[in-house]
Write a structure and sequence with these properties.
about 120 residues; alpha+beta; Outer Surface Protein A, domain 3; four-stranded antiparallel beta sheet; two-stranded antiparallel sheet; globular
Length: about 120
């Protein structure tokens, strides 16, 4: 059984000075995302699956599948740890490829999603 992920409904997001800013109303926390983190967040917001996001990352950033899957998986774990992304148990084969590829080595370096910084 694999989890399905949904964005926390207590979030407000806005683009400020070229960066995506997310405010968690429940925790009174403000997060800023760099361009690549914003790229992923926007796709999560539009309910794309991890496989779809990985494919978009591969095309947009010219990444290997392994590198995109690894970077996405790490970023999703960070979002879950901060409760920006909530996991719900559900059968989903879509996430399995991401989880299996997290330990794969990248063939070339790429910009990683920036660590989320908390303001306040």
């Amino acid at each position: 059984m694999r989890p399905t992920r949904n964005l926390n409904s207590d979030l407000i997001y806005e683009k400020i000075d070229g960066q995506l800013t997310v405010f968690d109303t429940r925790q009174s926390a403000l997060y800023t995302f760099n361009e690549s983190a914003g790229f992923i967040y926007k796709r999560l917001k539009s309910r794309q699956t991890p496989a779809q996001i990985s494919q978009a990352m591969q095309k947009h950033y010219e990444l290997t599948r392994e590198k995109a899957d690894k970077d996405l998986g790490l970023f999703l774990k960070e979002l879950e740890a901060k409760q920006i992304l909530l996991s719900h148990p559900q059968n989903s084969k879509d996430n399995s490829r991401i989880n299996e590829s997290q330990n794969a080595q990248a063939k070339r370096p790429a910009r990683q999603p920036k660590k989320i910084t908390k303001s306040g």
